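Input structure tokens:
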């Protein structure tokens, strides 16, 4: 019986892989593979592999157990703490804050029939390969962002409503706490990736002669792309140094302004894009690291993300710092020290 089940599962995986290999994306009116639509990478899987997992893949049974445990945690968090409040409304309930934007997801990521415990595939341990010097830079900048409230420039971009929380726009495009939606729009000469985290539109220039001069460093870098068969290949350089710290909640990381991110978008089914990327940044990492994830079709439209942290949180933070200075408190007493 076990052998029969095992053979059936193996056959299913082979069939899934064969189906993806045989699939060819439809063409748009320009003759390009059609990637247009609204997609999401919302998932319980994150960039780095949590300590509870020892391998890149786990079985469906193990995945179901993890997903059920997370569902119980969510249900417990949503339960009213005051018995007088009663149960949450059901009829005509529009859903919670995250429902409109796709929250972190309820399932682990799946690619080619495999359940993935991390998006990272290289290094094999599923951990970002910081060099000794790179980790020191990362830890110093992260510590400063967490403790220095004296001026707006050092505050994370999410507080300033510049690129949202970590900017799921990337690149690379990583799933964060919520709002993991992307709308792809194509033209003959460009591909636009729209991300409402925070009103970001990344324009990929197709068949460009080269990157912008090194003195020009826009938010989200400078992206140029070309078609390699059915795959859109995008190379991004010229990152703005202001976005080097990427606060992706459970996968916060640091990229230097001279990093190079190479992405590959391949539509493998009517409802999924295989998104692969690699990051080369010798200033920070000991090797080029690689990852892959699914972008799954989701219903649109992508709703507006109205960031208010810059309106309220930032003035309050700076006012607190100025008050501390008036009272003559030292930086180490106020949390303003690096």
């Amino acid at each position: 019986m076990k052998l029969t089940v095992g053979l059936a599962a193996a056959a299913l995986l082979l069939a899934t892989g064969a189906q993806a290999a045989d699939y060819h994306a439809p063409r748009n009116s320009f003759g390009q593979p059609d990637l247009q639509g609204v997609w999401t990478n919302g998932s319980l899987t994150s960039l780095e592999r949590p300590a509870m997992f020892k391998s890149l893949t786990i079985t469906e049974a193990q995945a179901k157990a993890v997903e059920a445990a997370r569902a119980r945690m969510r249900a417990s968090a949503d339960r009213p703490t005051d018995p007088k409040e009663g149960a949450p409304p059901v009829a005509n309930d529009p859903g919670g804050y995250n429902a409109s934007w796709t929250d972190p997801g309820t399932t682990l990521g799946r690619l080619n029939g495999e359940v993935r415990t991390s998006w990272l595939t290289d290094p094999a341990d599923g951990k970002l390969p910081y060099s000794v010097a790179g980790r020191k830079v990362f830890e110093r900048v992260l510590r400063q962002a967490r403790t220095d409230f004296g001026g707006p420039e050092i505050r994370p971009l999410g507080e300033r409503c510049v690129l949202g929380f970590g900017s799921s726009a990337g690149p690379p495009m990583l799933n964060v706490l919520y709002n993991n939606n992307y709308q792809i729009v194509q033209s003959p000469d460009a591909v636009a990736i729209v991300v409402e985290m925070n009103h970001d539109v990344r324009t990929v220039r197709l068949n460009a002669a080269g990157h912008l001069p090194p003195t020009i460093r826009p938010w989200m870098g400078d992206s140029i792309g070309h078609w390699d068969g059915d795959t859109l290949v995008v190379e991004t350089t010229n990152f703005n140094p202001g976005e080097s710290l990427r606060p992706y909640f459970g996968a916060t990381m640091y990229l230097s302004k001279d990093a190079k991110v190479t992405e590959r978008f391949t539509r493998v089914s009517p409802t999924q894009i295989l998104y692969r990327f690699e990051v080369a940044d010798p200033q920070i990492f000991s090797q080029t690291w690689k990852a892959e994830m699914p972008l799954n079709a989701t219903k649109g439209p992508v709703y507006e993300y109205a960031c208010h942290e810059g309106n309220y949180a930032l003035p309050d933070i700076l006012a607190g710092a100025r008050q501390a200075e008036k009272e003559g408190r030292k930086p180490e007493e106020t949390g303003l020290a690096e």
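The domain at 125-297 is CATH 2.40.128 (Lipocalin). The helical segments are 2-22, 60-78, 132-147, 309-326, 331-334.
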